[in-house]
Amino acid sequence: MKNLHFIVQAKGGVGKSILMYLFALKHYQDSKCLFIDVDASTQTSTRQLKFVQQDQSDVASFPDEKGLLIRDNLVAL
Questions:
Q1: Burial class for 7, CB neighbours closer than 10 Å (0-12, 13-18, 19+)
Q2: 8 to each of 14, 36, 73, 74, how far by Cα in Å?
Q3: φ, ψ (nearest 5 deg) of residue 27
């Protein structure tokens, strides 16, 4: 069974990036963990997660040019 953990909140400044960083500190040695930054515009998580293996980190973009969520991008990921 796979476990998925989403840290999602539309409002900025609520601690999403720091929470992801702390989660990665605890689990980065687990090769089954994949950390995905879904806010490619700021790349905050990408910068903070440089210590994890390259194959454990990815960036994904779900909104289209109008800012609407493209559900198929999430399913494909």
A1: middle
A2: 10, 12, 16, 13
A3: -115, 5
Quote the CA–CA distance of 5 and 8 in Å, as a whole number. 9
- In whole angstroms, give the CA distance from residue 64 to residue 35: 22
Residue 70 phi, psi dihedral angles, 5° rounding: -100, 100
pTM here? 0.63
Question: What is the per-residue pLDDT across 35-65, written as a single tens digit (0 to 9) for each?
Answer: 777 766 667 777 788 888 888 877 776 666 7
Q: Where are the alpha helices (DSSP H) in 1-77?
A: 16-27, 44-48, 71-76
Residue 5: phi and psi, rounded to 5, are: -125, 120
